[in-house]
Design a protein that fits this description.
CATH topology of the largest domain: Rossmann fold
Radius of gyration: 20 Å
CATH superfamily of the largest domain: NAD(P)-binding Rossmann-like Domain
Number of strands: 15
Helix content: 25-40%
Number of helices: 11
Structural class: alpha/beta
Order of helices and strands: EHHEEEEEEHEHEHEHEEHEHHHEHE
């Protein structure tokens, strides 16, 4: 183990630098590796921890910590959400990356971009595995950064999804996302004014909202659909979850603080009703969709392994290209 004074400096990477060192294509591959490590027992994660601030603000901190033995990725992510700041500006996030040999702090990173791209990549991987092969139409609930990156990731992995309907409470935001999708990606996109219009006829439904009350209800679902639930846990009604075969990014995460946990609390499901983890489906060890008319739901609750593999990759790229700023957190002798 190295002494405190001989440890290298800590690299600091802001959001702009993170976009330089972590592409969406890279993130998709990293998420596949993360799920493979999870399936093979090479991932170690702590239970996700929440600190909910008192009062009516609905603000919180969420802490995720994990280690991947395959890549040596070891780190902690902290999310801070303050809804009163408004759409697009209400989530802050940091990643701390450590050397898994001696605990040296390798990097401090902005994680807003990481959170968006790794969530979107995981969602698209889940859709590729769980949606019907003939799926074409996507109903999108939500219009924020996560919705955009979800469209991009699905475009890479599921190019047959070529029709999009978009709903948001804001007419301006849903129209803007539809125009951007059509203009930049060439996908047929239409903004609609109700949830019902967004999901009617959809083969895949993506929920990417910060809704404090459910927006996707049981009556919105049809046999054979796939639901990608990547927003906050309150966005889907407990009765809707009970109609689905739920595949989580992590069993403990889905049961403890995912969308599935809200259905457990409401009494519409029990813990034994949850399906396998996505990692086991991808590894071919458990079935995902079990029939053409099964309604599948991917519960993206957030698993630390998804973040730390991205952090390790970003740090390695930044080291190779000397991107970011090096700081010294502790000089030799500071504790003498």
């Amino acid at each position: 183990m190295s002494s405190l004074g001989s440890r290298p400096g800590t690299r600091v990477l802001g959001l702009r630098e993170m976009r330089e060192v972590l592409s969406l294509d890279d993130t998709i591959e990293l998420q596949r590796r993360a799920f493979a490590s999870q399936a093979d027992g090479l991932a170690t994660t702590a239970p996700n921890m929440w600190l909910r601030l008192p009062g009516e603000r609905r603000a919180w901190l969420k802490i995720l910590a994990g280690h991947d033995s395959a890549s040596g990725a070891l780190g902690v992510k902290v999310l801070a959400r303050f809804p009163e700041r408004g759409p697009g500006d209400n989530l802050a996030s940091l990643l701390l990356l450590f050397d898994d040999e001696d605990g040296s702090p390798l990097a401090i990173m902005d994680a807003v971009y990481v959170t968006a791209v790794r969530t979107a990549a995981g969602a698209a991987i889940a859709t590729e595995a769980l949606a019907r092969p003939d799926a074409r139409r996507v109903g999108m609930l939500g219009t924020g950064t996560l919705a955009w990156y979800s469209v991009l990731a699905h475009r890479i992995l599921c190019p047959q999804l070529d029709v999009l309907t978009v709903y948001s409470r804001s007419a301006e935001r849903r129209e803007a996302l539809a125009r951007r999708v059509e203009g930049e990606l060439g996908i047929e996109a239409r903004a609609v004014s109700t949830v019902e219009d967004a999901v009617e006829g959809a083969d895949v439904i993506v929920t990417a909202t910060n809704a404090p009350e459910p927006v996707l209800l049981a009556e919105h679902l049809r046999p054979g659909q796939h639901v990608c639930a990547i927003g906050i846990r309150s966005e889907i009604a407990a009765e809707a979850i009970a109609r689905c075969r739920v595949i989580g990014d992590g069993r403990e995460e889905a049961v403890g603080d995912g969308k599935f946990s809200t259905a457990i609390a409401a009494g519409t499901v029990s813990e034994s009703d949850i399906g396998p983890e996505l990692s086991l489906v991808l590894a071919g060890r458990e079935p995902g969709r079990i029939a053409p008319d099964t309604i599948t739901l991917f519960d993206s609750s957030g698993v630390a392994i998804q973040d730390v593999v991205c952090a390790r990759h970003a740090w390695e790229r930044a080291e190779a290209d000397d991107i970011g700023t090096i700081i010294t957190l502790a000089d030799a002798g500071v504790l003498d």
